[in-house]
Amino acid sequence: MLRSLCWMNLSIFLFSVATGVARADEPGWPQWRGPLGTGVAPNANPPIEWSETTNVRWKVALPGKGHSTPIVSGDRIFLTTAVPYGEKLPPKHSTAPGTHDGVPVTQRHEFVVLAINRRDGKILWQKTVHKKLPHEGGHYTGSLASNSAVTDGEHVFAFFGSHGLYCLDLNGEMKWQKQFGEMQTKHGHGESISPALYGDTLVINWDHDGPCFVVAFDKQTGRELWKAKRDEDTSWSSPIIIEHNDKPLLIVAGTNRVRGYDLATGKVIWECGGLSSNVVATPVAAEGMLFAGSSYEKRAFLAIRLDRAKGDITGTDRVAWSRSRGTPYVPSPLLYGDSLYFLTHYQGVLSRVTAQTGEDRPGQIRLGGLSDIYASPVGAGRRVYVTDLSGNTIVLSHEDKPRELAFNHLDDVFAASAAIVGRELFLRGERSLYCITEEAESKSK
Q: Are 250 and 261 in contact (CB under 8 A)?
């Protein structure tokens, strides 16, 4: 336990050095997997129980539709959304090979960044950064604004994939923007890759059924620092940047390889095969270990030792352990202390294993009452929170034999992953954003 706590405190320090926003004395949720990039809010203590009438400080209706996670910095929450406008048009269907379960495009959309007051839920500003008729509508469970933003406490970086990358200040003023063309996603299932930020470097991954690349920009000016081609196909997994051996390491998971890049140059340091196609879950890392999973044509999970990892490490001793059962598809893993949590595909079965060894502790846990889980699990206050599409959230104890502490329900559809800051839990539904806290002082709007 002491070792885990020491590592968590070191991780907080390293992340605050990297981004300048996530410090123990200044809590926030600056990116979609939180201050440590692991799904954990280390110093938070959100409620265990809530409902539409209990422990809701505020509930605010949101324009349009989006599945991006709320990003929290100081007294502001930032969200992205896509708002349809104008006359209805004849349905435009995706022409991607193997298209299924897609949503036809029938309207033009505004691509919007929102700033919301953390205290009362009021919308402070609403900035339209782009207008266009989308070339594809994506999967019926997705949205046109599923890429989560990232903030350094001075800027908000919002990425809409085919609809551009935008740098705004905290008042919504545009500082710079980039366009990359149109993504051609596998099966026409849409886009969701979020940007990664370290110091002054912002990274975008562009994996689709066309020329793929990863590119780094100077966050202040938008100047391209480097661009590296990738031998991949469509991925929905977001890049992560960690500190290893006192240097920043960029990690991107893909169908053909998980790769570690030198953040300064964009050169590949190591690569490892073994995941399936359609990689969606974003990796997590700590204590010199990286964990990446997928589940589509096959089920795969890799635990990679980063020390002395160079070149092609597939099948070498740098792969500490692997498994081919119970692996995640859409939800990303949660790395909480020395424990790793991940869902089976997107079903209501949660595995808990020892991160360093892959040993089951206790293994699979059936989450009664949950199904179709697209949001990633989050952790805080020695608890684990898992939310499904139907608005149900199970709260489990974070211990060797997790216990169900509460089963909660809200009247909305939830595909966005939660954000946790202090005593507050932010849940973004398709219609509303909720602030859940035991300090609730007013009912929903």
A: yes
Q: Is the dihedral of CA 329, 36, 56, 170 positive or negative?
A: negative
Give the DSSP letter string of 55-103.
Answer: SEEEEEE-SSB--PPPEEETTEEEEEEEEEESS----B----TT--SBP
Residues 110, 83 contacting (CB under 8 angstroms) = yes
- H helix count then E strand count, the chain: 1, 34
List residues bridging with 216 in a β-sheet.
Answer: 203, 226
Structure tokens at 200: 């002054």
Domain housing 232:
224-323
Q: Which of 299, 323, 347 is the last residue of a domain?
A: 323
**pLDDT given for residue 440 in this prediction:** 57
Write the single-letter amino acid at 295: S
Q: What is the pLDDT of residues 284-304, one digit of tens each?
A: 999 999 999 999 989 999 999
Q: Are residues 178 and 75 in the same domain?
A: yes
Measuring CA to CA, which residue among 389, 445, 383, 380 is closest to residue 417?
Answer: 389
- What are the residue ranges in the chain where pLDDT is below 70? 1-26, 440-445
Is the torsion defined by CA of 104, 107, 109, 114 positive or negative?
negative
Distance CA 45, CA 379 (A): 10
**d(C-alpha 4, C-alpha 180), whole Å:** 41
Token pair in block for residue 41: 């809010």
Q: Could you give the CA distance from residue 381 to residue 374 in angstroms, rounded to a whole number?
A: 23
User: What CA–CA distances, in Å, run from 53 to 57, 62, 111, 135?
Assistant: 10, 19, 32, 41
**Which of the listed residues 140, 175, 191 is the one where a domain comes to its end?**
191
Sign of CA dihedral 61, 386, 378, 25: positive
Query: Starting at the edge strand that comes first in sequence, how are the strands of the sheet with 247-253 ordered?
Result: 240-244, 247-253, 258-262, 268-272, 311-312
